[in-house]
Protein backbone atom coordinates (compact mmCIF):
# COMPACT_ATOMS: atom_id res chain seq x y z
CA UNK A 1 0.00 0.00 0.00
CA UNK A 2 1.73 3.14 -1.13
CA UNK A 3 0.58 6.48 -2.46
CA UNK A 4 1.25 7.60 -6.01
CA UNK A 5 1.04 11.36 -6.49
CA UNK A 6 -1.08 12.22 -9.55
CA UNK A 7 -1.15 16.01 -9.29
CA UNK A 8 -0.33 18.84 -6.92
CA UNK A 9 -1.63 22.43 -6.94
CA UNK A 10 -0.82 25.20 -4.52
CA UNK A 11 -3.93 26.78 -2.98
CA UNK A 12 -4.34 29.24 -0.11
CA UNK A 13 -0.73 28.72 0.97
CA UNK A 14 -1.13 24.93 1.14
CA UNK A 15 -1.35 22.11 -1.39
CA UNK A 16 -4.16 20.17 -3.09
CA UNK A 17 -2.71 16.75 -3.84
CA UNK A 18 -4.42 13.97 -5.77
CA UNK A 19 -3.18 10.51 -4.88
CA UNK A 20 -3.84 7.07 -6.33
CA UNK A 21 -3.28 3.82 -4.45
CA UNK A 22 -4.29 0.19 -4.51
CA UNK A 23 -7.10 -0.53 -2.07
CA UNK A 24 -7.29 -3.99 -0.57
CA UNK A 25 -10.84 -3.38 0.62
CA UNK A 26 -12.05 -2.30 -2.83
CA UNK A 27 -9.67 -4.61 -4.69
CA UNK A 28 -8.89 -1.89 -7.24
CA UNK A 29 -6.84 1.25 -7.73
CA UNK A 30 -8.59 4.32 -6.36
CA UNK A 31 -7.92 8.05 -6.08
CA UNK A 32 -8.52 10.65 -3.41
CA UNK A 33 -7.75 14.35 -2.98
CA UNK A 34 -6.27 15.91 0.10
CA UNK A 35 -5.86 19.56 0.95
CA UNK A 36 -2.91 20.13 3.26
CA UNK A 37 -2.74 23.62 4.78
CA UNK A 38 0.68 25.23 5.12
CA UNK A 39 0.78 24.27 8.80
CA UNK A 40 1.23 20.66 7.65
CA UNK A 41 4.75 21.58 6.50
CA UNK A 42 5.90 21.69 10.10
CA UNK A 43 3.59 19.42 12.14
CA UNK A 44 0.67 17.02 11.77
CA UNK A 45 -2.68 18.82 11.38
CA UNK A 46 -6.31 17.92 12.16
CA UNK A 47 -8.41 16.70 9.24
CA UNK A 48 -12.00 16.59 8.02
CA UNK A 49 -13.16 13.80 5.72
CA UNK A 50 -15.79 14.84 3.16
CA UNK A 51 -17.92 12.07 1.65
CA UNK A 52 -19.46 13.02 -1.68
CA UNK A 53 -22.85 12.27 -3.18
CA UNK A 54 -24.20 10.20 -6.06
CA UNK A 55 -22.30 10.50 -9.39
CA UNK A 56 -19.42 12.39 -7.74
CA UNK A 57 -15.79 11.42 -7.54
CA UNK A 58 -12.86 12.77 -5.51
CA UNK A 59 -12.87 16.09 -7.39
CA UNK A 60 -16.29 17.70 -6.91
CA UNK A 61 -15.90 18.81 -3.32
CA UNK A 62 -12.31 20.02 -3.71
CA UNK A 63 -13.08 22.00 -6.87
CA UNK A 64 -16.56 23.36 -6.18
CA UNK A 65 -17.29 23.68 -2.46
CA UNK A 66 -15.12 26.71 -1.68
CA UNK A 67 -14.01 24.87 1.49
CA UNK A 68 -10.29 25.43 1.04
CA UNK A 69 -10.25 29.08 2.07
CA UNK A 70 -11.87 28.28 5.40
CA UNK A 71 -9.80 25.13 6.01
CA UNK A 72 -6.65 27.21 5.38
CA UNK A 73 -7.77 29.78 7.95
CA UNK A 74 -8.02 27.07 10.60
CA UNK A 75 -4.99 25.00 9.54
CA UNK A 76 -7.16 21.95 8.92
CA UNK A 77 -6.67 19.32 6.20
CA UNK A 78 -9.53 18.16 3.96
CA UNK A 79 -9.74 14.61 2.63
CA UNK A 80 -12.09 13.79 -0.26
CA UNK A 81 -12.36 10.07 -1.18
CA UNK A 82 -14.04 8.71 -4.28
CA UNK A 83 -17.61 7.37 -4.01
CA UNK A 84 -17.23 3.81 -5.32
CA UNK A 85 -14.67 1.35 -6.64
CA UNK A 86 -13.43 2.26 -10.13
CA UNK A 87 -12.31 0.24 -13.09
CA UNK A 88 -13.95 -2.95 -11.86
CA UNK A 89 -16.45 -4.55 -14.15
CA UNK A 90 -19.57 -5.88 -12.50
CA UNK A 91 -22.75 -6.61 -14.42
CA UNK A 92 -25.15 -3.73 -13.80
CA UNK A 93 -22.62 -1.31 -12.32
CA UNK A 94 -23.21 1.29 -15.03
CA UNK A 95 -26.93 0.83 -15.67
CA UNK A 96 -28.06 3.69 -13.43
CA UNK A 97 -26.63 6.81 -11.84
CA UNK A 98 -27.86 5.90 -8.35
CA UNK A 99 -26.39 2.40 -8.07
CA UNK A 100 -22.99 0.88 -8.82
CA UNK A 101 -20.24 3.16 -10.14
CA UNK A 102 -20.29 6.52 -8.31
CA UNK A 103 -22.86 5.20 -5.86
CA UNK A 104 -21.15 2.97 -3.29
CA UNK A 105 -23.42 4.25 -0.47
CA UNK A 106 -20.65 3.74 2.13
CA UNK A 107 -21.68 0.15 2.91
CA UNK A 108 -19.85 -3.18 2.85
CA UNK A 109 -21.82 -5.16 0.27
CA UNK A 110 -22.81 -8.73 1.11
CA UNK A 111 -24.58 -9.74 -2.09
CA UNK A 112 -22.21 -12.01 -4.03
CA UNK A 113 -21.81 -9.84 -7.15
CA UNK A 114 -20.82 -6.78 -5.13
CA UNK A 115 -19.13 -8.14 -2.00
CA UNK A 116 -15.64 -8.34 -3.49
CA UNK A 117 -15.30 -4.67 -4.47
CA UNK A 118 -18.11 -2.59 -2.96
CA UNK A 119 -16.66 -2.13 0.53
CA UNK A 120 -16.69 1.66 0.78
CA UNK A 121 -17.60 1.49 4.49
CA UNK A 122 -14.44 -0.37 5.47
CA UNK A 123 -12.40 1.66 3.00
CA UNK A 124 -13.46 5.00 4.47
CA UNK A 125 -13.50 3.89 8.12
CA UNK A 126 -10.36 1.75 8.26
CA UNK A 127 -8.15 1.42 5.21
CA UNK A 128 -7.95 5.01 4.01
CA UNK A 129 -7.36 6.61 7.44
CA UNK A 130 -4.68 4.02 8.25
CA UNK A 131 -2.91 4.78 4.99
CA UNK A 132 -3.25 8.53 5.41
CA UNK A 133 -2.16 8.59 9.05
CA UNK A 134 0.93 6.58 8.12
CA UNK A 135 1.82 8.54 4.98
CA UNK A 136 0.74 12.17 5.40
CA UNK A 137 1.14 14.86 8.09
CA UNK A 138 -2.32 14.26 9.56
CA UNK A 139 -3.01 13.94 13.30
CA UNK A 140 -5.17 10.81 13.33
CA UNK A 141 -6.46 11.65 16.81
CA UNK A 142 -8.08 14.85 15.55
CA UNK A 143 -10.41 13.87 12.76
CA UNK A 144 -13.99 14.85 11.87
CA UNK A 145 -16.35 13.77 9.10
CA UNK A 146 -18.95 15.39 6.90
CA UNK A 147 -20.68 14.75 3.58
CA UNK A 148 -23.38 15.61 1.08
CA UNK A 149 -26.52 13.65 0.16
CA UNK A 150 -25.38 9.99 -0.13
CA UNK A 151 -22.19 11.23 1.54
CA UNK A 152 -24.20 12.95 4.27
CA UNK A 153 -25.74 9.55 4.95
CA UNK A 154 -22.21 8.13 4.94
CA UNK A 155 -20.86 10.73 7.35
CA UNK A 156 -23.73 10.39 9.84
CA UNK A 157 -23.82 6.57 9.85
CA UNK A 158 -20.03 6.24 10.03
CA UNK A 159 -19.95 8.70 12.92
CA UNK A 160 -22.68 6.88 14.83
CA UNK A 161 -20.94 3.52 14.35
CA UNK A 162 -17.45 4.82 15.17
CA UNK A 163 -17.94 7.87 17.35
CA UNK A 164 -14.64 7.34 19.17
CA UNK A 165 -12.82 8.01 15.88
CA UNK A 166 -14.34 11.42 15.13
CA UNK A 167 -14.52 14.67 17.04
CA UNK A 168 -17.60 15.98 15.22
CA UNK A 169 -19.96 15.32 12.31
CA UNK A 170 -21.95 17.39 9.85
CA UNK A 171 -23.99 16.87 6.72
CA UNK A 172 -25.50 18.73 3.79
CA UNK A 173 -28.82 17.32 2.55
CA UNK A 174 -28.17 13.82 3.95
CA UNK A 175 -30.20 10.78 2.99
CA UNK A 176 -31.14 10.50 6.63
CA UNK A 177 -33.39 7.45 6.62
CA UNK A 178 -32.40 5.43 3.54
CA UNK A 179 -34.41 2.34 4.47
CA UNK A 180 -37.50 4.47 3.86
CA UNK A 181 -36.64 6.10 0.53
CA UNK A 182 -36.27 4.86 -3.02
CA UNK A 183 -32.54 5.63 -3.34
CA UNK A 184 -31.73 3.73 -0.16
CA UNK A 185 -34.05 0.82 -0.82
CA UNK A 186 -32.59 0.29 -4.28
CA UNK A 187 -29.00 0.50 -3.04
CA UNK A 188 -29.49 -1.64 0.05
CA UNK A 189 -31.42 -4.32 -1.85
CA UNK A 190 -28.62 -4.47 -4.38
CA UNK A 191 -25.67 -4.40 -2.00
CA UNK A 192 -27.13 -6.03 1.13
CA UNK A 193 -29.97 -8.23 -0.10
CA UNK A 194 -33.59 -8.49 0.93
CA UNK A 195 -33.23 -8.91 4.69
CA UNK A 196 -34.11 -5.43 5.83
CA UNK A 197 -32.71 -6.02 9.31
CA UNK A 198 -29.22 -5.75 7.80
CA UNK A 199 -30.13 -2.38 6.27
CA UNK A 200 -30.65 -0.81 9.68
CA UNK A 201 -26.91 -0.97 10.33
CA UNK A 202 -26.54 1.73 7.68
CA UNK A 203 -29.48 3.97 8.55
CA UNK A 204 -28.95 7.16 10.53
CA UNK A 205 -32.41 7.18 12.09
CA UNK A 206 -32.15 3.52 13.14
CA UNK A 207 -28.59 3.87 14.44
CA UNK A 208 -29.56 6.92 16.43
CA UNK A 209 -32.22 4.96 18.33
CA UNK A 210 -29.57 2.71 19.85
CA UNK A 211 -26.73 5.21 20.10
CA UNK A 212 -25.58 5.98 23.63
CA UNK A 213 -22.84 8.53 23.03
CA UNK A 214 -22.94 12.25 22.63
CA UNK A 215 -23.38 13.89 19.24
CA UNK A 216 -22.44 17.43 18.18
CA UNK A 217 -24.00 17.51 14.72
CA UNK A 218 -24.76 20.23 12.18
CA UNK A 219 -27.16 19.43 9.33
CA UNK A 220 -28.16 21.86 6.56
CA UNK A 221 -30.79 21.22 3.92
CA UNK A 222 -32.37 23.54 1.37
CA UNK A 223 -36.13 24.01 1.30
CA UNK A 224 -36.03 24.03 -2.52
CA UNK A 225 -34.08 20.77 -2.68
CA UNK A 226 -35.84 18.56 -5.25
CA UNK A 227 -35.04 15.50 -3.14
CA UNK A 228 -36.18 16.89 0.21
CA UNK A 229 -39.67 15.48 0.10
CA UNK A 230 -39.09 11.95 -1.19
CA UNK A 231 -35.47 10.95 -0.55
CA UNK A 232 -33.87 12.79 2.35
CA UNK A 233 -36.37 12.32 5.21
CA UNK A 234 -34.89 15.16 7.24
CA UNK A 235 -38.19 15.56 9.11
CA UNK A 236 -37.92 11.95 10.27
CA UNK A 237 -34.39 12.63 11.52
CA UNK A 238 -35.53 15.76 13.32
CA UNK A 239 -38.52 13.97 14.88
CA UNK A 240 -36.33 11.09 16.02
CA UNK A 241 -33.79 13.44 17.56
CA UNK A 242 -36.64 15.20 19.35
CA UNK A 243 -38.35 12.07 20.61
CA UNK A 244 -35.03 10.79 21.98
CA UNK A 245 -34.56 14.05 23.86
CA UNK A 246 -31.40 14.81 21.91
CA UNK A 247 -32.36 18.11 20.29
CA UNK A 248 -29.60 19.96 22.11
CA UNK A 249 -26.99 17.79 20.35
CA UNK A 250 -28.28 18.43 16.82
CA UNK A 251 -28.49 21.67 14.86
CA UNK A 252 -30.78 20.91 11.91
CA UNK A 253 -31.32 23.92 9.65
CA UNK A 254 -33.78 24.29 6.75
CA UNK A 255 -32.26 26.95 4.48
CA UNK A 256 -34.99 28.85 2.60
CA UNK A 257 -34.76 28.66 -1.21
CA UNK A 258 -31.56 26.61 -1.44
CA UNK A 259 -31.36 23.45 -3.51
CA UNK A 260 -29.23 20.27 -3.64
CA UNK A 261 -26.31 21.77 -5.58
CA UNK A 262 -22.76 22.82 -4.79
CA UNK A 263 -24.00 26.43 -4.88
CA UNK A 264 -25.91 25.52 -1.70
CA UNK A 265 -22.93 23.71 -0.19
CA UNK A 266 -20.56 26.60 -0.94
CA UNK A 267 -22.92 29.05 0.77
CA UNK A 268 -22.78 27.20 4.09
CA UNK A 269 -19.44 25.36 3.95
CA UNK A 270 -17.72 27.95 6.14
CA UNK A 271 -20.25 27.27 8.92
CA UNK A 272 -19.46 23.56 8.69
CA UNK A 273 -15.68 24.03 8.74
CA UNK A 274 -16.05 26.32 11.78
CA UNK A 275 -18.30 23.70 13.46
CA UNK A 276 -15.57 21.08 13.03
CA UNK A 277 -12.71 23.45 13.86
CA UNK A 278 -14.23 24.12 17.28
CA UNK A 279 -14.37 20.38 18.02
CA UNK A 280 -10.95 19.60 16.55
CA UNK A 281 -9.16 22.32 18.48
CA UNK A 282 -10.58 21.45 21.90
CA UNK B 1 -33.10 38.99 -28.69
CA UNK B 2 -34.56 37.58 -25.51
CA UNK B 3 -33.19 35.57 -22.62
CA UNK B 4 -34.25 32.00 -21.95
CA UNK B 5 -33.64 30.88 -18.39
CA UNK B 6 -31.92 27.47 -18.33
CA UNK B 7 -31.30 27.08 -14.60
CA UNK B 8 -31.36 29.01 -11.36
CA UNK B 9 -29.62 28.21 -8.06
CA UNK B 10 -29.67 30.21 -4.87
CA UNK B 11 -26.17 31.04 -3.59
CA UNK B 12 -24.99 33.38 -0.84
CA UNK B 13 -28.41 35.00 -0.61
CA UNK B 14 -28.51 35.74 -4.35
CA UNK B 15 -29.06 33.72 -7.52
CA UNK B 16 -26.84 32.03 -10.09
CA UNK B 17 -28.83 32.06 -13.32
CA UNK B 18 -27.83 30.41 -16.58
CA UNK B 19 -29.37 32.03 -19.63
CA UNK B 20 -29.40 31.09 -23.31
CA UNK B 21 -30.07 33.56 -26.11
CA UNK B 22 -29.59 33.98 -29.83
CA UNK B 23 -26.56 36.10 -30.61
CA UNK B 24 -26.61 38.13 -33.81
CA UNK B 25 -22.86 38.73 -33.61
CA UNK B 26 -22.08 35.02 -33.22
CA UNK B 27 -24.99 33.89 -35.38
CA UNK B 28 -25.79 31.05 -32.99
CA UNK B 29 -27.45 30.32 -29.67
CA UNK B 30 -25.11 30.92 -26.75
CA UNK B 31 -25.22 30.65 -22.95
CA UNK B 32 -23.88 32.74 -20.10
CA UNK B 33 -24.07 32.62 -16.32
CA UNK B 34 -24.86 35.58 -14.11
CA UNK B 35 -24.62 35.84 -10.34
CA UNK B 36 -27.07 38.38 -9.00
CA UNK B 37 -26.54 39.33 -5.35
CA UNK B 38 -29.62 39.80 -3.17
CA UNK B 39 -29.27 43.60 -3.55
CA UNK B 40 -30.38 43.15 -7.18
CA UNK B 41 -33.88 42.32 -5.90
CA UNK B 42 -34.42 45.98 -5.09
CA UNK B 43 -32.15 48.03 -7.37
CA UNK B 44 -29.66 47.69 -10.23
CA UNK B 45 -26.22 46.58 -9.04
CA UNK B 46 -22.65 47.00 -10.36
CA UNK B 47 -21.21 44.08 -12.31
CA UNK B 48 -17.91 42.43 -13.16
CA UNK B 49 -17.51 40.50 -16.41
CA UNK B 50 -15.19 37.48 -16.18
CA UNK B 51 -13.71 36.19 -19.44
CA UNK B 52 -12.59 32.57 -19.24
CA UNK B 53 -9.60 30.80 -20.72
CA UNK B 54 -9.00 28.15 -23.37
CA UNK B 55 -11.34 25.10 -23.29
CA UNK B 56 -13.64 26.76 -20.75
CA UNK B 57 -17.30 27.61 -21.09
CA UNK B 58 -19.67 29.75 -19.02
CA UNK B 59 -19.52 27.35 -16.06
CA UNK B 60 -15.88 27.10 -14.96
CA UNK B 61 -15.58 30.47 -13.28
CA UNK B 62 -18.98 30.36 -11.60
CA UNK B 63 -18.45 26.83 -10.25
CA UNK B 64 -14.76 26.80 -9.36
CA UNK B 65 -13.43 30.29 -8.61
CA UNK B 66 -15.03 30.84 -5.20
CA UNK B 67 -15.85 34.38 -6.35
CA UNK B 68 -19.51 34.35 -5.29
CA UNK B 69 -18.89 34.74 -1.57
CA UNK B 70 -16.89 37.93 -2.11
CA UNK B 71 -19.25 39.32 -4.77
CA UNK B 72 -22.14 38.77 -2.36
CA UNK B 73 -20.31 40.70 0.37
CA UNK B 74 -20.01 43.73 -1.92
CA UNK B 75 -23.41 43.44 -3.62
CA UNK B 76 -21.79 43.04 -7.04
CA UNK B 77 -23.06 40.90 -9.94
CA UNK B 78 -20.75 38.54 -11.85
CA UNK B 79 -21.23 37.80 -15.53
CA UNK B 80 -19.48 34.81 -17.13
CA UNK B 81 -19.86 34.50 -20.94
CA UNK B 82 -18.87 31.47 -23.00
CA UNK B 83 -15.50 31.50 -24.82
CA UNK B 84 -16.56 30.88 -28.43
CA UNK B 85 -19.60 30.33 -30.63
CA UNK B 86 -21.24 26.92 -30.06
CA UNK B 87 -23.07 24.52 -32.31
CA UNK B 88 -21.68 26.03 -35.48
CA UNK B 89 -19.80 23.74 -37.78
CA UNK B 90 -16.65 25.17 -39.33
CA UNK B 91 -13.95 22.99 -40.80
CA UNK B 92 -11.11 22.82 -38.27
CA UNK B 93 -13.04 24.19 -35.30
CA UNK B 94 -12.55 21.01 -33.27
CA UNK B 95 -9.05 19.98 -34.39
CA UNK B 96 -7.21 21.54 -31.46
CA UNK B 97 -7.96 22.76 -27.94
CA UNK B 98 -6.34 26.16 -28.50
CA UNK B 99 -8.21 27.22 -31.65
CA UNK B 100 -11.86 27.16 -32.71
CA UNK B 101 -14.45 25.87 -30.24
CA UNK B 102 -13.67 27.07 -26.71
CA UNK B 103 -10.95 29.37 -28.03
CA UNK B 104 -12.51 32.47 -29.58
CA UNK B 105 -9.70 34.73 -28.27
CA UNK B 106 -12.09 37.70 -27.94
CA UNK B 107 -11.42 38.94 -31.49
CA UNK B 108 -13.67 39.68 -34.47
CA UNK B 109 -12.39 37.24 -37.10
CA UNK B 110 -11.79 38.52 -40.60
CA UNK B 111 -10.68 35.32 -42.32
CA UNK B 112 -13.60 34.12 -44.48
CA UNK B 113 -14.18 30.77 -42.74
CA UNK B 114 -14.43 32.36 -39.29
CA UNK B 115 -15.77 35.87 -39.90
CA UNK B 116 -19.45 34.88 -39.77
CA UNK B 117 -19.45 33.37 -36.28
CA UNK B 118 -16.19 34.15 -34.48
CA UNK B 119 -17.00 37.66 -33.28
CA UNK B 120 -16.43 37.27 -29.56
CA UNK B 121 -14.99 40.80 -29.31
CA UNK B 122 -18.19 42.48 -30.50
CA UNK B 123 -20.29 39.99 -28.55
CA UNK B 124 -18.57 40.73 -25.24
CA UNK B 125 -18.11 44.48 -25.80
CA UNK B 126 -21.44 45.38 -27.38
CA UNK B 127 -24.14 42.75 -27.81
CA UNK B 128 -24.03 41.00 -24.43
CA UNK B 129 -23.87 44.17 -22.28
CA UNK B 130 -26.72 45.74 -24.28
CA UNK B 131 -28.85 42.64 -23.73
CA UNK B 132 -27.96 42.38 -20.05
CA UNK B 133 -28.43 46.08 -19.28
CA UNK B 134 -31.86 45.91 -20.91
CA UNK B 135 -32.98 42.66 -19.32
CA UNK B 136 -31.38 42.31 -15.90
CA UNK B 137 -31.00 44.52 -12.80
CA UNK B 138 -27.45 45.60 -13.70
CA UNK B 139 -26.23 49.20 -13.56
CA UNK B 140 -24.53 49.48 -16.96
CA UNK B 141 -22.62 52.58 -15.83
CA UNK B 142 -20.78 50.60 -13.15
CA UNK B 143 -19.08 47.72 -14.87
CA UNK B 144 -15.59 46.22 -14.59
CA UNK B 145 -13.85 43.40 -16.42
CA UNK B 146 -11.43 40.60 -15.57
CA UNK B 147 -10.35 37.27 -16.97
CA UNK B 148 -7.98 34.32 -16.92
CA UNK B 149 -5.31 33.35 -19.46
CA UNK B 150 -6.95 33.83 -22.90
CA UNK B 151 -9.65 35.67 -20.94
CA UNK B 152 -7.02 37.78 -19.17
CA UNK B 153 -5.87 38.82 -22.64
CA UNK B 154 -9.52 39.51 -23.48
CA UNK B 155 -10.12 41.61 -20.37
CA UNK B 156 -6.98 43.73 -20.77
CA UNK B 157 -7.40 44.37 -24.51
CA UNK B 158 -11.11 45.08 -24.22
CA UNK B 159 -10.43 47.50 -21.38
CA UNK B 160 -7.69 49.33 -23.30
CA UNK B 161 -9.92 49.64 -26.39
CA UNK B 162 -13.04 50.69 -24.45
CA UNK B 163 -11.81 52.24 -21.23
CA UNK B 164 -14.81 54.53 -20.95
CA UNK B 165 -17.02 51.45 -20.51
CA UNK B 166 -15.21 49.93 -17.53
CA UNK B 167 -14.29 51.23 -14.09
CA UNK B 168 -11.39 48.82 -13.56
CA UNK B 169 -9.61 45.79 -15.00
CA UNK B 170 -7.77 42.77 -13.64
CA UNK B 171 -6.33 39.53 -14.93
CA UNK B 172 -5.06 36.16 -13.80
CA UNK B 173 -2.19 34.75 -15.88
CA UNK B 174 -3.09 36.80 -18.98
CA UNK B 175 -1.65 36.10 -22.43
CA UNK B 176 -0.19 39.58 -22.29
CA UNK B 177 1.60 39.79 -25.63
CA UNK B 178 -0.13 37.25 -27.91
CA UNK B 179 1.58 38.42 -31.10
CA UNK B 180 4.80 37.05 -29.58
CA UNK B 181 3.67 33.63 -28.36
CA UNK B 182 2.58 30.43 -30.05
CA UNK B 183 -1.01 30.49 -28.75
CA UNK B 184 -1.57 34.02 -30.01
CA UNK B 185 0.21 33.56 -33.33
CA UNK B 186 -1.83 30.45 -34.09
CA UNK B 187 -5.12 32.11 -33.17
CA UNK B 188 -4.46 35.42 -34.88
CA UNK B 189 -3.20 33.76 -38.07
CA UNK B 190 -6.36 31.68 -38.15
CA UNK B 191 -8.87 34.37 -37.27
CA UNK B 192 -7.17 37.52 -38.64
CA UNK B 193 -4.87 36.30 -41.42
CA UNK B 194 -1.20 36.85 -42.07
CA UNK B 195 -1.02 40.67 -41.89
CA UNK B 196 0.49 41.07 -38.45
CA UNK B 197 -0.44 44.76 -38.27
CA UNK B 198 -4.04 43.70 -37.69
CA UNK B 199 -2.94 41.53 -34.79
CA UNK B 200 -1.70 44.53 -32.81
CA UNK B 201 -5.30 45.68 -32.29
CA UNK B 202 -5.71 42.67 -30.00
CA UNK B 203 -2.40 42.76 -28.14
CA UNK B 204 -2.18 44.25 -24.64
CA UNK B 205 1.46 45.32 -24.94
CA UNK B 206 0.88 47.00 -28.31
CA UNK B 207 -2.37 48.67 -27.23
CA UNK B 208 -0.69 49.97 -24.10
CA UNK B 209 1.94 51.81 -26.15
CA UNK B 210 -0.70 54.02 -27.73
CA UNK B 211 -3.14 54.21 -24.79
CA UNK B 212 -3.60 57.68 -23.34
CA UNK B 213 -6.05 57.03 -20.52
CA UNK B 214 -5.51 55.99 -16.96
CA UNK B 215 -5.39 52.34 -15.91
CA UNK B 216 -5.99 50.83 -12.49
CA UNK B 217 -5.01 47.22 -13.14
CA UNK B 218 -4.29 44.20 -10.98
CA UNK B 219 -2.49 41.23 -12.55
CA UNK B 220 -1.62 37.99 -10.75
CA UNK B 221 0.47 35.18 -12.19
CA UNK B 222 1.92 32.07 -10.52
CA UNK B 223 5.65 31.43 -10.68
CA UNK B 224 4.97 27.70 -11.20
CA UNK B 225 2.60 28.37 -14.11
CA UNK B 226 3.62 25.99 -16.92
CA UNK B 227 2.76 28.68 -19.46
CA UNK B 228 4.59 31.57 -17.79
CA UNK B 229 7.81 31.22 -19.74
CA UNK B 230 6.56 30.63 -23.28
CA UNK B 231 3.00 31.92 -23.60
CA UNK B 232 2.13 34.66 -21.11
CA UNK B 233 4.96 37.21 -21.56
CA UNK B 234 4.20 38.91 -18.24
CA UNK B 235 7.77 40.22 -18.10
CA UNK B 236 7.20 42.00 -21.41
CA UNK B 237 4.03 43.57 -20.01
CA UNK B 238 5.84 44.65 -16.87
CA UNK B 239 8.78 46.08 -18.83
CA UNK B 240 6.42 47.97 -21.16
CA UNK B 241 4.48 49.41 -18.23
CA UNK B 242 7.80 50.48 -16.69
CA UNK B 243 9.25 52.02 -19.84
CA UNK B 244 6.03 53.99 -20.35
CA UNK B 245 6.29 55.38 -16.82
CA UNK B 246 3.00 53.72 -15.87
CA UNK B 247 4.14 51.47 -13.05
CA UNK B 248 1.95 53.30 -10.54
CA UNK B 249 -1.16 52.28 -12.51
CA UNK B 250 -0.35 48.56 -12.61
CA UNK B 251 -0.03 46.07 -9.75
CA UNK B 252 1.65 43.02 -11.29
CA UNK B 253 2.25 40.23 -8.77
CA UNK B 254 4.23 37.02 -9.25
CA UNK B 255 2.74 34.56 -6.75
CA UNK B 256 5.38 32.03 -5.61
CA UNK B 257 4.54 28.39 -6.29
CA UNK B 258 1.11 28.92 -7.82
CA UNK B 259 0.16 27.44 -11.20
CA UNK B 260 -2.37 28.14 -13.99
CA UNK B 261 -5.33 26.39 -12.37
CA UNK B 262 -8.54 27.46 -10.67
CA UNK B 263 -6.86 26.59 -7.35
CA UNK B 264 -4.62 29.60 -8.06
CA UNK B 265 -7.55 31.78 -9.12
CA UNK B 266 -9.59 30.86 -6.05
CA UNK B 267 -6.70 31.81 -3.77
CA UNK B 268 -6.57 35.39 -5.05
CA UNK B 269 -10.09 35.99 -6.37
CA UNK B 270 -11.10 37.93 -3.25
CA UNK B 271 -8.27 40.43 -3.88
CA UNK B 272 -9.58 40.93 -7.42
CA UNK B 273 -13.20 41.41 -6.36
CA UNK B 274 -12.06 43.94 -3.74
CA UNK B 275 -9.95 45.72 -6.40
CA UNK B 276 -13.02 46.11 -8.58
CA UNK B 277 -15.40 46.88 -5.71
CA UNK B 278 -13.28 49.92 -4.78
CA UNK B 279 -13.51 51.25 -8.34
CA UNK B 280 -17.20 50.39 -8.78
CA UNK B 281 -18.29 52.07 -5.56
CA UNK B 282 -16.49 55.36 -6.14
TrEMBL record, chains A, B:
<feature type="active site" description="Charge relay system">
    <location>
        <position position="149"/>
    </location>
</feature>
<keyword id="KW-0963">Cytoplasm</keyword>
<dbReference type="InterPro" id="IPR014186">
    <property type="entry name" value="S-formylglutathione_hydrol"/>
</dbReference>
<keyword id="KW-0378">Hydrolase</keyword>
<dbReference type="InterPro" id="IPR000801">
    <property type="entry name" value="Esterase-like"/>
</dbReference>
<dbReference type="GO" id="GO:0005829">
    <property type="term" value="C:cytosol"/>
</dbReference>
<dbReference type="InterPro" id="IPR029058">
    <property type="entry name" value="AB_hydrolase_fold"/>
</dbReference>
<comment type="similarity">
    <text>Belongs to the esterase D family.</text>
</comment>
<comment type="function">
    <text>Serine hydrolase involved in the detoxification of formaldehyde.</text>
</comment>
<feature type="active site" description="Charge relay system">
    <location>
        <position position="260"/>
    </location>
</feature>
<dbReference type="GO" id="GO:0046294">
    <property type="term" value="P:formaldehyde catabolic process"/>
</dbReference>
<keyword id="KW-0719">Serine esterase</keyword>
<dbReference type="GO" id="GO:0018738">
    <property type="term" value="F:S-formylglutathione hydrolase activity"/>
</dbReference>
<dbReference type="Pfam" id="PF00756">
    <property type="entry name" value="Esterase"/>
</dbReference>
<feature type="active site" description="Charge relay system">
    <location>
        <position position="225"/>
    </location>
</feature>
<dbReference type="GO" id="GO:0052689">
    <property type="term" value="F:carboxylic ester hydrolase activity"/>
</dbReference>
<protein>
    <recommendedName>
        <fullName>S-formylglutathione hydrolase</fullName>
        <ecNumber>3.1.2.12</ecNumber>
    </recommendedName>
</protein>
Amino acid sequence: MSLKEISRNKAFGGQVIKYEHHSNELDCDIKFNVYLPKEADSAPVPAIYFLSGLTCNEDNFIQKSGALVEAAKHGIALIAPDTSPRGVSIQGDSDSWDFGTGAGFYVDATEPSWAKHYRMYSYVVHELPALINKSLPIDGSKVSIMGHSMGGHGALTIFLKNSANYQSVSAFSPIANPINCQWGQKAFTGYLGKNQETWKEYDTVELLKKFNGKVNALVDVGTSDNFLENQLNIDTLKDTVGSLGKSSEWTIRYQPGYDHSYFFISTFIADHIIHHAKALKQ
